[in-house]
Structure formats: structure tokens, C-alpha cells
């Protein structure tokens, strides 16, 4: 792998497990886009999606059998793709510690970062079994062991060792390295803790490959990359087509992240960058297939950081959807990504618990949402015009139309909340001055605004669930359950379901208020401001 430029994708097949046929169809497509390596992330806080023979209790619902995994590995090999496993070997290990028999190994937070206790000998015993079986199933000479985003060191056993946290971490890295090399594999690990603390980095063996990830375009990607290569590591640049803040579909920040890493990676090939990995995280938050343009674009940029994106998009649309004249639809898909908001912006309007909502909607937010809706509507119109000519993957092409509709509805909530908050303030002012007639009229208007918004939100939730069933397990409880992550903790159907329910509750409350004009709607005064201020 280190003798050639690595053009890789990484898929998260544990936060949700797609239907087996999805992976079978995806692998040839990855090869067609230009990938030669596939990282397979199959353990995380949400479970283990490979049925293990040793430690079989770790395997979770819909886990692939060893035979199924072997068939996918063989399929990939026939298409020139090497499959490299990724096993979480310190943090992201609730797949182990959520079980009663391993609960004593838990450290950290059940709702944020966590870890196996690095000071308990049983932690290494469990990991050794998991890593050994992984090495049996995956013939690749590499084994990615995670080691990112950890929180530990507070348990009595760790404190008794009297070592600083960085040393506990470094010692654990060395222990995992001994296991991996003993299995005849070369170790890959995430680079976030190495970048943060040079003391850790200096103790990591230089035969380890470092996967440098950073998903924010304003972060010092190039400087951090140089830090790792200057330390003597071979480095894989790892941007993200999908991340924890990617909801409904990837947005422009995801694509900008691909461009930044491709530029830095190619500029630093002589210094030790040996390839790129396009990561796709938290697919439960995105419509099925919505990451495919990001995957296709990433492969093109990883091969040539100055690749013509309009040509790449036309090629993607022609080959994926069978459009003989792909230019208009290709441009529409690119514009849809440019207009799509990430969760960091949308969470202001996706209100689940109004009184606990921490985000203020400003006039700037409302204006930004309106501009995005206009761009999305134009993109949707082009896609709809192209739909009759689509001859392949028709369900996936319809997904882009659905994405446009869902984003339009979600962005429309900015105006809904502004209208609702302003009307409710006017109603309370009317009550205060004794104008009951005006208060009743305003209450009816408020109820109408909320009723219409609630109906639209409910339609979005229903359509998102229907799309889930197109490519995913229809009975997967994670479509509505919490996905165990730190921001807006739910998959897309559940997120839309919960926030639609909020609008429905408020609409009922507004109707109850309407006959008298009196009562509290239940919105915090901080939800909307008339003052202009920068948006987060």
C-alpha cells in the first residue's frame, strides 16, 4: 500500500448497517470512481458490525458474517481495491463496555468521549482477541486501530499508576502496536492526539502510518500535516464527505474539506504524504446515496487536486444515472451541495425542546435561509426536468429531489420561528393593554402559522423514513432512536420526527389559546431576536 499513491474511501458501517446488497453494489462503483483502497469501519460506540467467533457477544444487530465479509473483500480485490479494517482500540468502545460483563472497563462519558481503561489488563485481552480475528478475516497487511477522541485517566486504577494522561495514552499505543505487529500487520492510527501532544507522537513507532483527519475548513490542516511528516511518519490525509454535522446530505463545507486536503496532500507528497482517505461518517444522518457525489469528487481530487469539477460532475451523472446530456443535472447537484446547510446552522431551527433551546435565530439567519431556499428551488427545477431521461439508479436520482424538498422545509422553519415569536410577542402586548379582540386574532394567526409548519414538517419526517427503507433495513430501530453522538443525537428520520412533534405540540397550544387570546405559548424569549448579529 505504501508503494503507490493511496486513493481511498472509508465507510462507516456500524452506526447503521446498510443492506448487504448496498455494499455489494458500492464496491464496483468505488473502483469506477478511481479508488484503490477501502477502509472498513466496523466497530464504534454503536456496536460491532462483524460477527465475531471470539467475543461473539460484541456483535450487534445486522452484523455481517465472516463469510459475507470475505465475499466483499474478494469482490473488492477483483476490482483492484484492497479492504483495510478499522477497529476502535481505546476510545469509541462502548461496543465493548455497554455490556455488563465489560462495564468495569469503562472510562469517560456515556454521551461523549469514552475509553476502555488503559490500565486494566483485561482491556488488552479483549482487544487482542478482536484484533486477532480481524487479522484473520482481512488479508490486507494493514490494520487501522483508531485511537482518536478518547477520555480516560480518572479511574482509581489509572490514578494509582501516577502517570500523566499523555503517558497512559502513549503506553497503550505501544501495547496495541505490539499486538498488531505480532499479527504480522502494519499499524495505522488516527493523528489527532499526536498533533495535540508531541510527547505522545515522539513515543509512537515510526513504522506506524498516521491518518490525519480534520473536518473544519478553518483549521490549520497544512501545519498539522507538516507536524506529522516532520516527525517522520507516513501520512494519509483524511477529509470527510460526511461527518457528525452533515445532515440530509453533504454541504459545501464537506466538499471544501476534500479540496483543502487534496491540495495539501499533493503538495506534501515528497515529505511523506502517501495518500488520501475520503471518510463518510454517520450515514444515519444522511439520505441514502447522498454522499455519492462527494465520494466521486473526492476520488477525482485525490488523483489530481486541480481536477475540473464540472467535468467530474458530468461524468458522475452520465455514468451513475445514464443521462446522455448530463450538464444541467450535474450543475444542479453541485448547486444543491453549495446551498445545503450543515447541522451547525440548521440546529437553530430544528427545535426539539423550546425552553431548553440554546440557539438564537437572528434576522441574518432568516435571510440566509431564504437565499438558500431560492438556490435549492432552482436546482430542484433542473433536476426535475432531467428526471424523465434518467435510465439508471432512478431511486437514487429521486433522492436528490427529496433532499431539495427536505432542505427547503427545514430552512423554512427559520421564517416560521421568526413569525411565531413575533406574533406571540404582539399577542402578549395586546393582552397587557387589555385588547382582547386583537389578542384573539393574533393567536389565530399564530396557530395557523404553526399548523402549516407542523404539517410540512410531518411530511418531511414521513418521506425521510420512506427513503431510509429504500436502501436500509426497514425495521432498524436506529432510524428513530438516538444514534449516541454528541450533537442533535438522532438519525435523520428521528430528528425530523421529533422536531415535527414540537411544532405539532405548539400548534395545539396555539389553538387552545386562540379563543381567549390568553396564556403562554411556551417559546423562550431568546429563541428569536430582532437585533442583527453575526450568525454562528
Descriptive overview:
- Strands 1, 2, 5, 8, 9, 10, 11, 12 and 13 form a nine-stranded parallel beta sheet that branches. A two-stranded antiparallel ribbon has the order 3-4. The protein has a two-stranded antiparallel sheet with strand order 6-7.
- Helix 16 packs antiparallel against helix 17.
- The protein has a domain at 331-513: Four Helix Bundle (Hemerythrin (Met), subunit A).
- 51% of the residues lie in helices and 10% in strands.
- It is globular and about 80 Å long.
- 52% of the residues are buried.
- It has helices at residues 20-33, 66-78, 94-97, 121-137, 156-161, 165-182, 192-196, 198-203, 221-230, 252-267, 292-303, 309-321, 327-339, 343-346, 363-386, 394-432, 436-471, 492-513; strands spanning 6-12, 37-41, 43-44, 47-48, 82-86, 106-108, 114-116, 142-144, 186-190, 209-213, 234-238, 240-242, 273-280.
- The longest helix has 39 residues, at 394-432.
- By secondary structure, it is an alpha/beta fold.
- The model has no long low-confidence stretch (mean pLDDT 95).
- Helix 9 (221-230) links the parallel strand 10 and strand 11 (234-238).
Oligomer: single chain
CATH architecture group name of the domain at 331-513: Up-down Bundle
Q: What is the CATH third-level topology name of the domain at 331-513?
A: Four Helix Bundle (Hemerythrin (Met), subunit A)
Mean of pLDDT: 95
Amino acid at each position: 500500500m505504501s508503494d503507490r499513491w493511496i486513493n481511498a474511501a472509508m465507510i462507516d458501517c456500524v452506526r447503521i448497517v446498510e443492506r448487504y446488497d448496498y455494499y455489494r453494489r458500492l464496491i464496483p462503483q468505488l473502483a469506477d470512481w478511481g479508488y484503490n483502497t477501502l477502509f472498513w469501519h466496523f466497530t464504534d460506540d454503536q456496536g460491532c458490525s462483524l460477527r465475531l467467533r471470539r467475543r461473539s457477544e460484541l456483535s450487534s444487530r445486522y452484523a455481517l458474517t465472516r463469510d459475507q465479509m470475505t465475499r466483499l473483500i474478494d469482490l473488492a480485490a477483483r476490482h483492484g481495491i484492497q479492504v483495510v479494517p478499522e477497529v476502535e482500540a481505546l476510545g469509541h468502545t462502548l461496543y465493548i463496555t455497554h455490556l455488563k460483563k465489560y462495564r468495569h472497563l469503562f472510562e469517560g462519558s456515556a454521551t461523549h468521549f469514552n475509553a476502555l481503561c488503559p490500565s486494566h489488563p483485561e482491556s488488552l485481552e479483549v482487544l487482542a482477541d478482536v484484533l486477532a480475528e480481524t487479522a484473520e478475516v482481512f488479508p490486507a497487511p494493514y490494520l487501522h486501530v483508531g485511537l482518536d477522541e478518547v477520555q480516560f485517566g480518572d479511574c482509581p486504577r489509572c490514578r494509582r499508576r501516577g502517570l500523566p494522561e499523555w503517558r497512559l495514552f502513549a503506553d497503550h499505543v505501544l501495547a496495541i502496536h505490539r499486538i498488531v505487529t505480532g499479527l504480522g500487520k502494519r499499524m495505522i492510527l488516527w493523528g489527532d492526539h499526536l498533533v495535540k501532544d508531541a510527547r505522545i507522537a515522539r513515543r509512537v513507532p515510526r513504522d506506524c502510518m498516521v491518518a490525519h483527519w480534520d473536518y473544519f475548513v478553518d483549521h490549520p490542516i497544512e501545519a498539522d500535516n507538516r507536524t506529522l511528516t516532520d516527525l517522520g511518519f507516513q501520512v494519509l490525509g483524511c477529509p470527510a464527505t460526511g461527518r457528525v454535522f452533515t445532515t440530509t446530505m453533504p454541504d459545501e463545507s464537506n466538499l471544501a474539506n476534500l479540496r483543502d486536503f487534496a491540495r495539501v496532500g499533493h503538495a506534501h507528497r515528497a515529505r511523506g504524504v502517501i495518500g488520501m482517505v475520503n471518510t463518510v461518517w454517520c450515514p444515519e444522518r444522511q439520505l441514502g446515496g447522498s454522499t455519492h457525489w462527494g465520494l466521486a469528487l473526492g476520488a477525482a481530487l485525490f488523483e489530481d487536486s486541480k481536477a475540473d469539477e464540472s467535468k467530474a460532475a458530468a461524468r458522475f451523472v452520465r455514468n451513475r444515472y445514464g443521462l446522455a446530456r448530463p450538464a444541467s443535472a450535474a450543475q444542479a447537484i453541485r448547486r444543491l451541495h453549495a446551498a445545503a446547510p450543515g447541522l451547525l446552522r440548521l440546529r437553530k431551527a430544528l427545535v426539539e425542546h423550546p425552553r431548553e433551546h440554546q440557539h438564537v435565530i437572528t434576522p441574518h439567519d432568516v435571510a440566509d435561509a431564504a437565499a438558500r431556499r431560492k438556490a435549492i428551488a432552482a436546482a430542484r427545477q433542473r433536476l426535475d426536468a432531467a428526471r424523465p431521461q434518467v435510465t439508471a439508479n432512478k431511486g437514487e436520482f429521486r433522492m436528490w429531489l427529496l433532499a431539495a424538498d427536505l432542505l427547503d422545509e427545514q430552512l423554512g422553519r427559520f421564517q416560521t420561528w421568526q413569525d411565531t415569536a413575533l406574533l406571540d410577542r404582539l399577542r402578549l402586548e395586546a393582552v397587557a393593554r387589555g385588547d382582547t379582540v386583537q389578542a384573539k386574532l393574533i393567536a389565530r394567526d399564530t396557530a395557523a402559522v404553526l399548523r402549516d409548519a407542523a404539517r410540512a414538517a410531518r411530511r418531511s419526517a414521513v418521506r425521510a423514513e420512506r427513503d431510509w427503507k429504500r436502501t436500509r433495513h426497514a425495521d432498524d430501530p436506529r432510524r428513530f432512536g438516538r444514534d449516541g453522538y454528541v450533537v442533535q443525537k438522532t438519525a435523520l428520520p428521528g430528528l425530523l420526527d421529533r422536531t415535527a412533534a414540537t411544532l405539532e405540540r405548539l400548534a395545539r397550544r396555539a389553538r387552545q389559546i386562540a379563543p381567549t387570546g390568553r396564556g403562554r405559548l411556551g417559546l423562550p424569549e431568546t429563541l428569536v431576536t430582532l437585533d442583527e448579529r453575526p450568525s454562528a
